[in-house]
Amino acid sequence: MDYNIPKTIPLGGQNIKVKIVRNIPKEGCTGLYRCYTNEIFVQTQVNGNDIAKEQVEQTFWHEYAHALLDHARQEELCDNEPFIDLLGELLYMSIGKKVRWR
Fold it and tell me: Any idea which fold 8-96 has?
């Protein structure tokens, strides 16, 4: 499937690598941001079933929101999942739906 997700995205003078994978080893999550390796992982399947394209793209923006707040050293907000969900949704609607990455 063709996801509208960048392969890399800049953040504060660094490039965050984006990896689209079938499964993430961490149970219960479909996305993961690793600050020490500058990587975002986005999962495309759950129990062998494809995740909807829009949900995969939304997950990317959710993880990018974690990266933004981590970079800004806002640990309290970074751990606030309802806030991250909202910020990720706003990023997806304002940027992700308007820019063609691939």
Answer: Arc Repressor Mutant, subunit A (1.10.10)
Rounded Cα distance between 22 and 87, Å, is 25
- 77 class by beta-carbon count within 10 Å (0-12 exposed, 13-18 middle, 19+ buried): middle
For 42, the token pair is 């986005």
- Alpha carbons 18 and 32: distance in angstroms, whole number: 10
Question: What does the pLDDT look like over 6-49, one tens digit per residue?
Answer: 999 999 999 999 999 998 877 778 999 999 999 999 999 998 89
What backbone phi and psi angles, to 5 degrees, belong to 32?
-155, 135
Q: Output the six-digit token pair for 61.
A: 């923006």
- Report the alpha-carbon distance of residue 96 to residue 19 in Å, rounded: 17
Domain spans in the chain, listed from the N-terminal domain onward: 8-96
- For 22, 36, 83, the CA distances from 39, given in Å and listed in that order, are 16, 8, 21
